[in-house]
């Protein structure tokens, strides 16, 4: 794709975002999801007290604390953010990162409840087993059981919305946020040793990253550029959120003065209160680079980033080689077996080279699309066509977001 075509494509994306913004501002953007949200917001408004807003607090220190129990908030909108540890080609998805955002639309505040992966939970194993942990609920009992478990732990009736991401999706999101070295950021956020003392500190820092990103991008969220990024980000995730729902929730918070200051987002670490825990500014590239270097020194025996890139390419080459052979042999079912998981994971986003990403993306999608055509799965063939358009749009935004 030439530079001129790419530039034109990015302009089309931004023009589309302007049109969506106009629809949203004039209340013409109505979907079943927004109508459900309207009902939730009406219930919240009916219960809303006329309490004064708190005075702005001082900026948070370099060390911070976190409560160990979530607040009682039956009227809150609950959004679960789930990070799954799913290896390339592996259908098993352990929920290694679990954060529930409680949006208090009465007070204009957000509480992020960070829940460690090893929190005891019914994962469907015998009581004598050591596997009844939160991370295994998603893998062994499925998403709905996982969401019900999160709701029970946090103390809400249900999780209203969820968003789930794997390694590849997270790397794509970080690129959209403007990080030039997304793999370094992911390594820092996933580390349990080398920087933090344990999993409680790890989820605490993950929650602070979410907080920093919310505050950093809050003002641009409702702009055409922000809407374009929002739609691209949601398109990468397994989620029931839509851009319209997110913007309506943001409007409801903004109407209550959010964010009055940095204390408008509170962090709770489920199970154990933390005191004077270190907090790093992960919006600063130099901080992320320093922490990543610290991890490399601590884990000097582990594979380098170059080795990791090579492993991703080896995986992609292997499944494509087998898929080509299956295509020549007229075995569409075999192509489906080989490529469905890789495409669902969007494995190509683990590659740092944009041209390589495009190469592997297109061949994976083309082979799988051909297989669906032979299997007469027109619905999935069309879904792949839409995915490819979405991916082209996301790549254009990544280029525009790069410093």
Shape: globular
Poorly predicted regions: 50-61
Strand order of the largest sheet: 6-5-2-3-4-7
CATH superfamily of the largest domain: LCP protein
What is the CATH C level class of the largest domain, in words?
Alpha Beta
| CATH architecture heading of the largest domain | 3-Layer(aba) Sandwich
Question: What is this structure's SSE topology?
Answer:
Elements: H1 3-25, H2 32-47, E1 63-66, E2 77-85, E3 94-104, E4 109-115, H3 134-141, H4 143-154, E5 161-165, H5 167-176, H6 182-190, H7 199-217, H8 224-236, E6 238-239, H9 243-255, E7 265-269, E8 274-278, H10 285-298, H11 305-328, H12 332-345, H13 354-374, H14 378-401
Helix pairs in contact: 1-8, 1-14, 2-9, 3-4, 5-6, 5-8, 6-10, 8-14, 11-12, 11-13, 12-13, 13-14
What does this 3D model show about the protein?
The protein has three domains: 1-30; 32-49 and 60-297, Aminopeptidase (3-Layer(aba) Sandwich), CATH 3.40.630; 305-401. The protein has 14 helices and eight strands. Residues 50-61 have low confidence and may be disordered. The protein has 403 residues and is an alpha/beta fold. Helix content is 55%, strand content 12%. The protein has a six-stranded mixed beta sheet with strand order 6-5-2-3-4-7, with helices on both faces. Strands 1-8 form a two-stranded antiparallel ribbon. The relative contact order is 0.14.
